[in-house]
User: Fold this.
Amino acid sequence: MIEVRNLVKNIASSHRQNAQKNGIAIIDNLELLIEQGQSASVQGASGCGKTTLLHLLSGLDHPCAGTLIVAKHAIHNYDETRLDYFRRHTIGIVFQQFHLLESLNVEDNIAFTARLAGNLDPHHINNLMQQLGIADMRNQRVTKLSGGEQQRVAIARALAHKPRVVFADEPTGNLDEHTSSAVSELLFSTCRALNTTLLLVTHSNDVAALADDAYHMTSGQLTKITPSLQKS
Ligand SMILES: Nc1ncnc2c1ncn2[C@@H]1O[C@H](COP(=O)(O)OP(=O)(O)OP(=O)(O)O)[C@@H](O)[C@H]1O
Assistant:
């Protein structure tokens, strides 16, 4: 579950005491609720604050004000030690720039987060590689892969430790239309199977429409653009 209340991020200052006084609020009293196991997509103009929102929810950036609860973790109150534990165990992140470990092969990149979390399930990792079409590349260094292949490795890595929540920033941005559709369906179906909450930023209407709820971001806030597609 993700619960965000009155979230403010001022891009000129990350210090709480200066939040209201300095700079522009790129996130301005934003509210969001996603139940456990549900998914939501966020679309919006370039520079409107989508990546900033994911960084705040991942504990990679600090809010100026507001409440951020992610899988029962009230991370707005956490220090770096607790945030580090939270990131390792609770969430998976697909970054826009992948951030793969260049010295490792495909399989070790994917297993890395699971090893850190102490939750290595080789069968699950093998399934992810098979479903994402990267099993044949398991022993290759990631630097040898195309952008689209690296993107699939990044997606598998985010799911490898069966996190409670996944944040994905343009997870299909480097994929052709056919692969984008297959990979995004796999991302959504794997999250559903694991009862993992998924929050995804995308420029693709097709990918956004796969989510239970779709939001548009503007003026630092989210507006729901489709009714919730409640599953029976
Ligand atoms: N650390 C920072 N310091 C100052 N400004 C920042 C910082 N991080 C982001 N910004 C600014 O905040 C705004 C939102 O950036 P963000 O990356 O969240 O946008 P976005 O909606 O994800 O854009 P895109 O769709 O192009 O990826 C931009 O104007 C950006 O320049």
In short: Confidence is low (pLDDT under 50) at residues 228-232. The pocket of adenosine-5'-triphosphate is lined by residues 11, 26, 44, 46-52 (CB under 6 Å). The helical segments are 50-57, 80-89, 106-117, 122-132, 147-159, 177-193, 205-208. Residues 61 and 129 are 31 Å apart (CA to CA).
